[in-house]
Amino acid sequence: MIAEPTLAVRIWRGRADGAWRDYAVPRRPAQTVLDVVTHVQRHLDPTLAYRFACRVGMCGSCAMTVNGRARWTCRTHVDAVAADDRLEIAPLSHLPIVRDLVVDMTRFFDKWAQAGGAFVPTASRRDDFAVIAPDSPARREVDAAIECIGCGVCYASCDVVGWKPDYLGPAALNRAWTLQNDARDGAHDERLRAVATDAGCYACHTHQSCTERCPKQLAPTASIAGLKRLAVRAALKGAL
Amino acid sequence: MRYNDVRARGHPAYWAFVVHRVSGLLLALFLPLHFFALSQALDPAGFDRFLVWTRQPAVKASEIAVVVALAAHFAGGLRLLLVEFVGWRADLQKSLLALAAAFTVAFGLLLAFNP
Amino acid sequence: MTPARAATLRWLAQRASAAVLAVCVLVHLATILYATRQGLSGAAMLSRAHASFVWPAFYAIFVVAVAVHAPLGLRTILDEWSGLRGRAVDVLLAAFALVLLAGGLRAVAVVTL
């Protein structure tokens, strides 16, 4: 009888003052890290708390820290990360731990709002449609950054977020950039004042950890550099 | 909450940041010493004695470290100015990092080991 | 002045001084390289430095750029990696800027005037 290959899985249990607990999980072909977590909760320890929803790489709910790096667990194949049959699974960094692998995303979304991450309309339904050329430079900038679904991987990956609690973070600033390039939006001046601060775009030191880890291959670093340029232009015109 | 460790930081752009920050810190701390040393040149004979003192291995080694730090901070800084002012080209990022690193090594070696 | 305007001007000062320093550093290193290659003695270097007004002018600009750039860089490091906050930091950095300016201009005067 060939023994079933086993993964040695270390999972964070509890809150910030919690501890690691070890589990032995059967290793299967085409297994994802989410499969591993699910197996633990269903067959080994029903008290394990974790988030997931679509399990097919669309919603971003299953983001966790796997072997030290933030990723979507449903899109992380065990074969790609568990070279020596070992896995370490922890909750996302830089957010309060609710329990086990679940973090409180409140601050992440609060910063999104603080950065002016909401579209402010200037037209009503009685007006004609806005005409935006898809290949205009501004729209191309928006398109390159618009696919963010707010999963928090970039925020968890950014060390400046860890060093500077007020830092708005890559996702919020990336969203602000898309709105600054949207001709229909009416809050450009206020939003720029909100993001062009020491806790905003200037706190980015181009580590590019966000860009490295974004599961949608976005580049918040580029968006934040764009915000810096917008702010400088505004300041030199006396508009900031 | 949890924080990241070295596993999350194992990529070139992050190392470039560390080099840039550490080199900047070293230079900032070195400069007051440099200014003080230069102002000793009021006395030419004393200045010559000072120059002889700088040929001690420990001092020479520190000089090399400072020059390499300067080259690194300069190259990294140019890269940053490009990224921030000229705009983002995803395909060029890795090349820019490599260029900065190569320049640092070349410039640092050239100046440091110039007898 | 809004926080955004202040932060933007600080950032701009940092980048502008960086651009000035990029040029100054190249000139300075080329000069020192030349001097050591030529095997100039201390006295020879000093006499050449005294010979033209270009040297004090150039090095004065260099010192001013450094006095802007270094404290701003340290400001970020202190904010992210130390527990120091608020007025204490501003005072400390202003003092450091003065140390660099005074020490630097004195060195320039001694070597080139």
Key features of this structure:
heterotrimer; B: 115 residues; mainly alpha; 3 helical TM bundles of succinate and fumarate reductases; C: 113 residues
Task: Walk me through the structure.
The complex is a heterotrimer of chains A (240), B (115) and C (113). Chain A is α+β, with helices and mostly antiparallel strands and 240 residues long. Chain A has ten helices and seven strands. Chain A has a five-stranded mixed beta sheet. Chain A has a two-stranded antiparallel sheet with strand order 6-7. In chain A, helix 4 (137-145) packs antiparallel against helix 7 and helix 7 (170-180) packs antiparallel against helix 8 (188-195). The relative contact order of chain A is 0.13. Chain B has 115 residues and is mainly alpha-helical. Chain B has a single domain (10-112), classed as 3 helical TM bundles of succinate and fumarate reductases (Up-down Bundle), CATH 1.20.1300.10. In chain B, helix 1 packs across helix 3 (57-86) and helix 3 runs antiparallel to helix 4 (93-112). The longest helix of chain B is centred in the middle third of the chain and has 30 residues, at 57-86. The N and C termini of chain B lie far apart (52 Å). The mean pLDDT of chain B is 88. The radius of gyration of chain C is 17 Å and the shape is elongated. Chain C is built from four helices and no strands. Chain C has 113 residues and is mostly helical. The model of chain C has no long low-confidence stretch (mean pLDDT 93). The A-C interface holds A 160, 163-164, 192-198, 200, 202, 205, 228, 231-232, 234-235, 240 and C 2-5, 7-12, 76, 79-81.
Q: What can be said about the biggest beta sheet of chain C?
A: none
CATH topology of the largest domain in chain A: Fumarate Reductase Iron-sulfur Protein, Chain B, domain 2
Q: What Rg of chain A do the Cα atoms give?
A: 21 Å
Strand order of the largest sheet of chain A: 2-1-5-3-4
CATH class of the largest domain in chain A: Mainly Alpha
Structural class of chain A: alpha+beta
Tell how many strands the DSSP assignment of chain A holds.
7
The proportion of residues in beta strands of chain A is: 5-15%
End-to-end span of chain C in angstroms?
40 Å
- Unreliable segments of chain A (pLDDT under 50, ≥5 consecutive)? none
Helix content of chain C: over 70%
Low-confidence stretches of chain C: none
- Oligomerization state: heterotrimer
DSSP helical segment count of chain A? 10
